[in-house]
Design a protein that fits this description.
Elements (H helix, E strand, L loop, with lengths): L2 H9 L8 E5 L6 E6 L4 E6 L10 H13 L6 E5 L2 E5 L4 E2 L2 H5 L1 H21 L9 H15 L7 H14 L6 E3 L8 E3 L4 E3 L6 E3 L1 H11 L4 H12 L5 H28 L6 H23 L1
Antiparallel strand pairs: 1-2, 2-3, 3-5, 4-5, 6-8, 7-10, 8-9
Helix pairs in contact: 2-4, 5-6, 5-9, 6-9, 7-9, 9-10
Length: about 290
Amino acid sequence: MDVAALEMIRSLPLWEGRPEVSVLKGGITNRNYKVSDSRRTCVVRLGDDIPVHQISRQNEVAASRAAHAAGISPAVIHHQPGVLVLDHIDGKTLSPEDIRSPAYLERVVALVRASHRETGRHYRGGAMIFWAFHVIEDYAATLAAAGSRHASKLQDLLRISRWLEAQAGPHDIVFGHNDLLAANFLDDGNRLWLIDWDYAGYNTPLFDLGGLASNNELDEAQERWLLEFYFERPLDAGLWRRYQAMKCASLLRETLWSMVSELHSTIDFDYAGYTADNLDRFQRAHAQFRHSEE
């Protein structure tokens, strides 16, 4: 437990008496804590803006409020610079194995579809655009300027990214979550919740769907089912091609995110291992996509 964080959390004007504070594991962009007093239990997320990842905490707050209004995410209790306090959901954090199970996958995709349709209606203020191909270009520039150990890979990765962008259109636009890791889904025993809106912004739904599939290692049959269930129509060759392009983009963006985090993050996490895993999965997905196009 970080002593300064503990003192700051206990100083927030929210608690009745002296609150109990414990660390919530798993955050790789924020530091998260479970805080309980005599009235309620909350989650406190500590994190400032992260310009190298294009994270604006004001956007995160606005998206979190919009997602709560849409019935997707827990309520925002309090915020101030560097601090976001949310209602605590007493439930199970999903794993990739959970997401892959038929019992969960249908519920998860239904929640993502509802989020895409409803969250943006409740967003207030200027909203962000999250365009994976711009993010990839920006990350590559950051890595090159910093002399990253991955610098020699960048030109080839940018060439692939630009080819993927050409394959991915035309695009529908929704308000996306843009970080559909299994750990961002909670099951309280009655319903699912979607949390952590650091990267929220308008995007193609195929980025979220591709990210959901790649982050949780769905097989091809599950991916085809996912697209038909989400879009409520039979899958055609054009949609399948565009989806595969965005799935590759989601893996490439995650790879470069980790490369940048190797340089800039102070959170105790194996970013080098995460980079290697995502780069391998990106290369396999890209090779499969190119083979299918031949």
